[in-house]
Amino acid sequence: MGEFLGLPNWFAETLFVIAVLLVWYAVGRRNTRKAITQLKQSRPSPTREKFLSLIQPDVRRETAEFLWDTTIFYLAPDLTPHPDDKLSDLPIDEDDWGMDWPRDFANKSGFHESNIPDWPKGWPVTIRNYGRWLELAAIS
């Protein structure tokens, strides 16, 4: 077995992998913090009640509460959701809002997730529109 800087190759390789993962984590964390700061500066961070009042003209209270509870889980304590936030601007994995949230909403609302239609063409993917989309299945 060879050595690198006096360390066994397997150990040096392990340290290299750990270093790369730490750098990757630090860059990701920095980018997330930067995105949160920019978003906070670009719009108000509403309280729960303000969020509900802003979104409720477009969705039922139950849907508004679901959206608040679901997004705040990912954003707190650094940020609160705003109905006009684009989901792609939030530090939330697309798999969560793309697959898990519809299933969770369907289960909570008493229908099967297969009732949720395709995303309407031309709709920006905002929290407000997300709620409107979920309700398309809830009311059909």
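That was protein one. Protein two is written in the same sequence-then-structure order:
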Amino acid sequence: MLWSKKKRGLYYLLPGMNRSNRIRQRQILRWSILVGLVFALLVGFLLYWFNSPRIPY
């Protein structure tokens, strides 16, 4: 009881919880943020361009 060793819980890894998956998920997150920013800039530019007044020639 007082002098017995503490039993440590076992550590189980579920599928996909290793280091390579975390690195892959982080890379996917970075690419998705980059693509989202580029897409938002493109849509914003197109909205600005279509709504800007044009000088008739």
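Residues 11 and 17 are 12 Å apart (CA to CA). Keep this in mind for the problem set.
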